[in-house]
Amino acid sequence: MKKTLIVATSRLIKLVANITKVISYPFHWVLPKKRFTLPEQAAPLLKGGKPSPIPRIVWQTNFTNRVTLPVYLNYLFNRIMAPGFEYRFMITEARRKFIAEHYPEILPHYERLQIGAAQADLWRLLVLHKFGGVYLDIDAHQIWPLSCIVGTEREELYVTTRKGELSNYFIASAADNPNLARLIERVVENIQENKLTNVFDITGPGVFIEQLDLNAVDTVSYRYAVNQGSFTNEHFQYVDKPAGKWTREQKITSVLRNITSSKRGS
């Protein structure tokens, strides 16, 4: 019964979200330069709530904090769906600063990543390992209250896709999670070995699929937790980034810069 209700709610959210997305086209046609600012940090909308191994923090990142209307509406909706959660956001420069401060030994490997999405993949693992919380992609939105999805007993939660595979656009974890440590180690090894050519396999969901046992970790289907792309799309996300989405960018830019050029640029 509950799953049926969640699916029905998801469909309603998707309908409303798509309407706002359609409206955003004429909005940005009239106001092509209009952007909205995502805050670096925002306090919970509601205080209190039961303590949980997974800290009540939502983490997001993007190449810029100045976003189009659809991305901003996506952010506002997530805030409404997670009223008891603090919000924290980092742009590219802030991600590097965080890693330099807390994981200096990983920074040289991080700096070999030339594509922002790959950098964000590694950063999300590190920030959750350090502080814990819930990571959401900038185009991801909850379809059920986040506190209900995460619960008060879990120490980690991963999302599965339509294919039943693990993904990384939603990750919930307590700090110092050994599974996250394994994922971080594997990403660093992929960077050092430099044998793979795709963001998906080097830093992304491919690492989760390879390293984590679906039967040994706590998972939730995207159908009952979080969706992507209802409020926004590639056009609205990357209108200020000529290189576009990582799937396009990696066709013309190597995911990893070689060690020689990395040292030269440092």
Number of discrete helical segments: 12
Q: How many domains in all? A: 1
User: Which topology does CATH recognise?
Assistant: Spore Coat Polysaccharide Biosynthesis Protein SpsA, Chain A
CATH hierarchy class name: Alpha Beta
Distance between the termini: 56 Å
Structure characterization notes:
There is one protein chain. A hairpin with a 5-residue loop joins strand 8 and strand 9. The longest helix is centred in the N-terminal third of the chain and has 29 residues, at 2-30. Mean pLDDT is 95; it is low at 261-266. The protein has helices at 2-30, 69-81, 92-102, 107-110, 116-131, 146-150, 178-193, 199-202, 205-211, 234-238, 246-249, 259-265; strands spanning 36-37, 41-42, 57-61, 66-67, 86-90, 133-136, 140-142, 156-160, 166-173, 219-221, 226-228. The protein has one domain (2-265): Alpha-Beta Complex (Spore Coat Polysaccharide Biosynthesis Protein SpsA, Chain A). The chain is α/β, with parallel strands linked by helices and 266 residues long. The chain starts with a helix and ends with a helix. The chain is 45% helix and 16% strand. The strands form 3 sheets. It has a 7-stranded mixed β-sheet. It has a two-stranded antiparallel ribbon with strand order 1-4. Strands 7-11 form a two-stranded antiparallel sheet. It is built from 12 helices and 11 strands. The chain is globular, with a radius of gyration of 18 Å.
